[in-house]
Design goal:
109 residues; alpha+beta; four-stranded mixed sheet; two-stranded antiparallel ribbon; 6 strands; elongated
């Protein structure tokens, strides 16, 4: 990974008062990520919640007996705020979705 691709580790204050350190990539190059202060994960969590809600709605429509969804997000800075990017994970797609139905319509368990 080049220096341009590498992120900067920044402290982020959570709603409960604790601080975590997050690796952040600068998307637009106009501001130094390391100069950002008072960062919040709210915009990132809102994005994750929105994508998860869309996935949950799809699962309600499809009604599989079992489902697993794996999503990869990268955190970047844009306009002074953290933002979530969907990224390619270890698999070949941004989303890895597994749905299962049994032939007789009964739940296996």
């Amino acid at each position: 990974m080049s220096d341009e691709e590498a992120g900067t580790v920044l402290p982020v204050l959570l709603d409960n008062g604790s601080t975590i350190h997050v690796e952040v990539r600068d998307l637009n190059g106009r501001e130094k990520v390391s100069d950002l202060k008072n960062l919040s994960l709210k915009t990132v969590m809102d994005a994750v919640e929105g994508v998860s809600g869309e996935m949950a709605a799809m699962l309600k429509r499809l009604k599989p007996q079992k489902a697993a969804i794996e999503m990869g997000f990268e955190i970047s800075a844009e306009s002074g705020q953290l933002t979530a990017l969907l990224v390619k994970g270890s698999g070949k797609a941004t989303f890895k979705v597994t749905l299962e139905w049994s032939g007789d319509g009964k739940s296996s368990g």
